[in-house]
Design brief:
The chain is of the alpha/beta class. Helices cover 43% and strands 15% of the residues. It has a single domain, classed as NAD(P)-binding Rossmann-like Domain (Rossmann fold, 3-Layer(aba) Sandwich). It has a seven-stranded parallel sheet with strand order 3-2-1-4-5-6-7, with helices on both faces. The structure holds NADPH dihydro-nicotinamide-adenine-dinucleotide phosphate (NDP) and 2-hydroxyethylsulfonic acid. NADPH dihydro-nicotinamide-adenine-dinucleotide phosphate binds next to helix 1, helix 4 and helix 6. Belongs to the short-chain dehydrogenases/reductases (SDR) family.
Length: 249
């Protein structure tokens, strides 16, 4: 029987590429996101059975209801890819709009918690499962303006490790995939629709592609039972570290 992957934020970027990758490998997909027309367009591209759910991960009741209402053919979920997320703004912490911080916390932390809690019981009952969380290098390394975005991804890293602690012995694996500079709609969202500013982020650099991240997600989700990949941090080849910032005087 074909396995089923549930992907949040499948309307763009990593989520969409991940749906295509699992589909190409013969998996069934449950694709979700807020933009229904994009989900329908993606569904037409997929060869294997796919179930789409217009879903805002911030809506706890909607998340729990959508998982409860999964068609029998798409249940239980074998792999959950908690990918939906965003950065909003790059202002310093003293300048930031608090609504941006709320939005990141509600989506990247609370949305990911709701989806995980909704799907885990069926994995436990089934005696098999894998939760792949999409973290970020921003959760491991600080940068100016990364403030709450990076902190939400640090939550994802630690939550992933703590899930491992809870689920060990139940044949449920957990991985935090932590990409760096990758060209998706991420920067357009961060800069609130400013396409020129977003394009400048990827100008004259060879970034990670969504398919590279999909590849890592698929690889980690298909390791044998005796292996759990805890974390994978992936940077663009052109990306590395700056020295500490020392202000003199
Ligand atoms: P995109 O903007 O291209 O995709 C983000 C996806 O998240 C969209 O499908 C969007 O769907 C979905 N999403 C956002 N908010 C919600 C919500 N409230 N409910 C449901 N879905 C939501 O960016 P990426 O593909 O780059 O981002 C995917 C993940 O990767 C994010 O968690 C991001 O933080 C992380 N990441 C990105 C990096 C990068 O450089 N691109 C690097 C490291 C991590 P819709 O709008 O239709 O709801
Ligand atoms: C996205 C990568 O470095 O722009 O998570 O924060 S970064």
């Amino acid at each position: 029987m074909a396995k089923t992957v549930f992907i949040t934020g499948a309307t763009s970027g990593f989520g969409k590429a991940t749906a295509k990758r699992f589909d190409a490998e013969g998996w069934q997909t449950v694709i979700s996101g807020r933009r229904g027309e994009r989900l329908e367009a993606l569904k037409k591209e997929l060869k294997n059975p796919s179930h789409s759910i217009v879903l805002d991960v911030r809506d706890k009741d909607a998340v729990l209801g959508a998982v409860d209402a999964l068609p029998a053919a798409f249940s239980p979920i074998d792999v959950l890819v908690n990918n939906a997320g965003l950065a909003v703004g790059l202002e310093g912490a003293d300048q930031v709009d608090l609504a941006d911080w709320d939005l990141m916390v509600d989506t990247n932390i609370k949305g990911l918690m709701y989806c995980t809690r909704a799907i885990l019981p069926q994995m436990v009952e089934n005696g098999y499962g894998h939760v792949v969380n999409i973290g970020s290098i921003a959760g491991n390394w600080p940068y100016p303006g990364g403030n709450v975005y990076g902190a939400t991804k640090a939550f994802v890293r630690q939550f992933s490790l703590n899930l491992r602690a809870d689920l060990v012995g139940k044949n449920i694996h957990v991985t935090d995939v932590e990409p760096g500079l990758a060209e998706t709609e991420f920067s357009e969202v961060r800069f609130k629709g400013d396409k020129d500013k977003a394009a400048a982020v990827y100008n004259d650099v060879d970034p990670i592609r969504p398919e590279d991240v999909a590849d890592a997600v698929f690889w980690t989700a298909t390791r044998p039972k005796n292996i759990n990949v805890n974390r994978i941090e992936i940077m663009a080849g052109a990306q590395a570290f700056s020295p500490f910032n020392v202000v003199k005087g």
